[in-house]
């Protein structure tokens, strides 16, 4: 079990660790926790530790090359104002992989990092 002061870690296989660190720190509010680029770095936002594994990292070598591509899994980041975030990130030229989708729980859009890994930006529906 984890305690409240621990973080959850997710590993993303990336082509370029430096580009991934720049993407997450510049655009999504992560801070660098450890940097061993070009092989590996990890960045943190709240309780999420994102492990960015380049081609020469042990994490990437453990994944067969044919399975290393980005999939439908994604990290989920909650935002206060989805429209403002989308506008800011579009202005920065970042690639979205979906349009805004609205459901009973809120609104979301998918953004791709430099390696094609998905990031879901989610604005919860207002509580009644």
TrEMBL record:
It comes from the Bacteria. Signal peptide: none annotated. One of its GO terms (molecular function) is dioxygenase activity. One of its GO terms (biological process) is L-methylmalonyl-CoA metabolic process. The keyword Oxidoreductase applies. Residues 6-124 form the VOC domain. Keywords: Dioxygenase, Metal-binding, Oxidoreductase. The keyword Oxidoreductase applies. PROSITE patterns: VOC. PANTHER family: METHYLMALONYL-COA EPIMERASE (PTHR43048), METHYLMALONYL-COA EPIMERASE, MITOCHONDRIAL (PTHR43048:SF3). This is Catechol 2,3-dioxygenase.
């Amino acid at each position: 079990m984890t305690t409240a002061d621990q973080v959850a870690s997710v590993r993303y296989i990336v082509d370029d660790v430096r580009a991934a660190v720049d993407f997450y720190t510049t655009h999504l509010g992560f801070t660098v926790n450890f940097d061993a680029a070009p092989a590996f770095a990890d960045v943190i936002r709240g309780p999420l530790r994102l492990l960015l594994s380049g081609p020469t990292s042990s994490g990437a070598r453990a994944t067969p090359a044919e399975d290393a591509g980005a999939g439908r899994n994604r990290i989920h980041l909650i935002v206060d104002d989805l429209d403002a975030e989308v506008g800011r990130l579009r202005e920065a030229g970042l690639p979205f992989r979906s349009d805004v989708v609205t459901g009973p729980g809120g609104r979301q859009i998918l953004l791709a990092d430099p390696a094609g890994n998905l990031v879901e930006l989610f604005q919860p529906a207002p509580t009644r």
